[in-house]
Design goal:
The chain is mainly α. It has one domain. 69% of the residues lie in helices and 0% in strands. The longest helix has 20 residues. The chain is globular, with a radius of gyration of 14 Å.
């Protein structure tokens, strides 16, 4: 089926958002015209999309690892950036 223009724009943005001036939320609104929560909702769906995996494999792999790390930390009751002692 392929990715829509908006989905491609979201992947492009997620791959380089730190180059934008100001907070990420402001850049999302200015560049994509989306609220931060709607952006995260769409990005979350893209993480599991085979089309997104084909279009941006390194980005999707990184996002999946981050998601899994956050899930594991919640399950174990640790802060996301915390270390196990």
């Amino acid at each position: 089926m392929g990715l829509s223009e908006r989905e491609r724009a979201i992947l492009d943005f997620e791959g380089s958002w730190w180059t934008e001036p100001g907070p990420k939320e402001a850049a999302i609104k200015a560049r994509l015209g989306l609220s931060a929560s709607r952006y995260r909702e769409i990005l979350s769906g893209l993480i599991d999309s085979p089309e997104a995996q084909g279009a941006a494999p390194l980005l999707i792999r990184r996002l999946r690892k981050e998601r899994d790390r956050r899930r594991r930390a919640r399950y174990e009751g640790r802060p996301v950036g915390g270390r196990k002692l």
